[in-house]
Structure formats: structure tokens, C-alpha cells
Amino acid sequence: MKFSVLTLFPEQVKNFLSESIIGRAMEKDILSIDCIDIRDFSGNRYGKVDDTLFGGGTGMLMQCEPVFQAFSSLYDASKETKPHCVFMSPKGQVLSQKKAQELAKYDHLVILCGHYEGIDQRVLDEIVDEDVSIGDYVLTGGEVAACVVIDCISRMIDGVLPNSEAYEEESHMSGYLEAPQYTKPNIWHDKKVPEVMLSGNHAKIKEWKRIHGLYDTWKRRPDMLEKLEISAEDWQKILKIDKEDS
Ligand code: SAM
Questions:
Q1: Which of 7, 52, 85, 131 could disulfide-link 113, Cβ–Cβ 3.0 to 4.6 Å?
Q2: Which of 12, 67, 89 should be mutated for ligand 1, with most atoms under 8 A from CB?
Q3: Ligand 1 centre and the CA of 161: distance in Å?
Q4: CATH superfamily of 2-154
Q5: What is the model's pLDDT at position 165?
Q6: What are the pLDDT digits (tens) for 156-181?
Q7: Which of 53, 88, 95 to mutate to test the pocket of ligand 1 (most atoms within 8 A of CB)?
Q8: Which CATH fold would you assign to the domain 169-245?
């Protein structure tokens, strides 16, 4: 999969994504992430890409033309179809695992980062397919948000993680949270790893994880559980854990 990030701060994005799992996926050519500096398309020798707001207001707004030229440099409009363009924006649909799964289907995804007061609406109307937010708060720029989106999508691309189980069993993938996890030693500060985890019985371990995942979801995120149809039998198991825990 190819990501093209349109930004005024390419180093911020490059630095974050060049490490760890995503960095290794790039080295293996499973992913490519190009950061395009919008300032290179300023059209003036000062590299100026923003101006004051019509109608008044504090701060500066990124202008249409540099953003449009940076986007146009990514494909040949006479031969290729326009790549899907996501604008990082606090006004967008809030990122979820489902949204990331949808975005993972594109071969080429363009991520546009705003800065300062944002970007002139007219160029957004022309090139952007959808706005995505990473939460109901305002950041200084779209760069951190772009890194979050790319990281979340990349984990689901074949070859980035050792196998699909590595992400399919994680929180949010099936609409509920992951069960608690344990590693060596078996006993730490008098706390034992649950017996079933050491049993080697894969069916029992799977069931333990499923029910404890549902239990944790009920305790931490009841809003998520409301969207699932929990059988009476599963509720009994969840309530049994609750009784044992209290
Ligand atoms: N004036 C804008 C508003 O009130 O909607 C906020 C501009 S913000 C200071 C600058 C840029 O940061 C935005 O254009 C956007 O690209 C990015 N940004 C800020 N908050 C974000 C969020 N929650 N999710 C994604 N991007 C965000």
C-alpha cells in the first residue's frame, strides 16, 4: 500500500513512521510512505503558503494553489484516476477500527494535513474525498493525526505483522476489548497467571479470552457492549466472573 502525506512538516511524519514495525514494513517494501512538502509548491521564492483570513479572525489559512499543486503532482490526471484523499480535520468522522479497515482497501491513499487555522475550503471541496478526525479536540496540525491513521491502517496490511491473528484478536476488531494478557514469570508479586493459560487446551483458552474480553468491555466500555447481541448463556458467564472478582 502506498501513502502520500501532504504536509508543511514532512520531517515530523517521517521521523515518527521510520521506526519499529512500520519502519521495517517500509524497508521490506510492504508499505511506502512519501511525505510531500506543500511548501515546495508555493510558487513564490519565500515559500509562503498561507495568508490572513477573509472576514477577519486570528491566524493564517493555508492557500488553495500550493495544496492543489502538491496534490496534482501525485498522479497524471490524463491517465490515472484521482487517488483517494483524506483530510485530517477535527470536523471529520472520528477514526475507528472500522474506518481504518475501510481505508486499508485503497492501494494509494493521500493524507492531507492542515496547519495554522486550516486550509481554504475551496481546495478541500475540489480534492478531498472525506475528512477524518482522531478525536474531539484540536491539534496544532494534521501531522500527528496522519501518523495515527497510517499506523492503525498499516497493522492490517498483509506482511506488516507476523500473521493476521496478531491484529484480528485485538481490541475493537470484533466490537469488544481484548482479554487481559500474561507473560513469564508464572507468578509475580504473588499474582498467578490464570490456570487455563498454562493448560495447553487451546479451545478452553480461546473461550476464556472471549468471555474475559466481553467482561472487560462490560466493565470499561458498556457503550460498546450495547451494540453486540450477548446471549443469556454468555451473560451468565460474565456475571460469574464479576462475582469472583468482587
Ligand atoms: N480551525 C480549525 C477548526 O476549528 O476546525 C482547526 C485548525 S487546527 C489548529 C490545524 C490543523 O490540525 C487542521 O487543519 C487539521 O489538519 C489538524 N487537526 C487538528 N485537530 C485535529 C483532529 N482532532 N483530528 C485530525 N486533524 C486535526
A1: 7
A2: 89
A3: 30
A4: SPOUT methyltransferase, trefoil knot domain (3.40.1280.10)
A5: 84
A6: 999 999 988 888 888 898 899 999 99
A7: 88
A8: Trp Operon Repressor; Chain A (1.10.1270)
Low-confidence stretches of the chain (pLDDT < 50) are: none
Instruction: Provide the CA 110 distance to its chain's centre, in angstroms.
Output: 14
Question: Cα separation of 18 and 27, whole Å?
Answer: 9
pTM of the predicted model, to two decimals? 0.94
- For residue 105, the model assigns a pLDDT of 96
- Taking the centre of ligand 1 as the mean of its atom positions, its distance from the CA of residue 76, in whole angstroms, is 29
Q: How far apart (Å, rounded) are the C-alpha atoms in residues 111 and 87? A: 6
Which grid cell is 53? 483570513
Instruction: State the pLDDT at residue 169.
Output: 83
- 202 to each of 195, 199, 230, how far by Cα in Å? 13, 8, 23
Pocket of ligand 1 (CB under 6 A): 88-91, 113-115, 117-119, 133-135, 137-142, 145
The pLDDT value given to residue 83: 98
HEC secondary structure over 156-192: CCCCCCCCCHHHHCCCCCCCCCCCCCCCCCCEECCEE
What's the 88 CA to ligand 1 centre distance in angstroms?
7
Q: What residue spans define the domains of the chain?
A: 2-154, 169-245
Alpha carbon of 135 to ligand 1 centroid (Å): 10
Q: What is the pLDDT of residues 10-19, one digit of tens each?
A: 999 999 999 9
